[in-house]
Amino acid sequence: SVIGLREKQSSEDKITYDLIDQIFSTIEINFKFQQQTIDASIRFCHARENMRTSSVRIMQTLIDTRQKKMKKLQVHSFHKALQQIVSNKVETEKKKKMIPRGSMFGNMTATPVDRKIFSPLAANSGIFSNFKDAADINHSSHST
């Protein structure tokens, strides 16, 4: 009967151990699953961070490109303005030679300030600061 009791005890112990094993393996599986979930969420966070970084990089590239374009445009418009000034100057020099002296201005000979009035582009662009003076002088010469 003692032997029978021991066998019964050992078989109960075995069931208990099996149960404990199952519980632990379940806990382990659960822990592994949680670990995988944590890893996955970390990977997701990294991916989201990478996306954010790349979108920032893309925005920066767009901004840089736009700034370069603006600089090119500024340089281009500056060159255009320079060309305009040069061509105005050339036109003015041509007109200087064509101005009839005497009759048109009474007895006055045209001064360089008078001549600036003949370049309408120069007049409109306000390149010459003494344009107003030129206009005043011109009007006074007309009135005489």
Quaternary state of the chains: single chain
Return the structural class. mainly alpha
What's the number of structural domains?
2
N to C succession of SSEs: HHHH
The largest β sheet comes out as: none
Q: Which labels suit this protein?
A:
144 residues, mainly alpha, 83% helix, 0% strand
Describe the structure.
The chain is mostly helical. It folds into 2 domains: 1-84; 99-144, no CATH class. It contains 4 helices and no strands. The longest helix has 97 residues, at 2-98. It is rod-shaped and about 145 Å long. Mean pLDDT is 74; it is low at 127-131.
What's the SSE blueprint?
Elements: H1 2-98, H2 112-115, H3 120-125, H4 131-143
Summary, kept brief:
The chain has 144 residues and is an all-alpha fold. The protein is built from 4 helices and no strands.
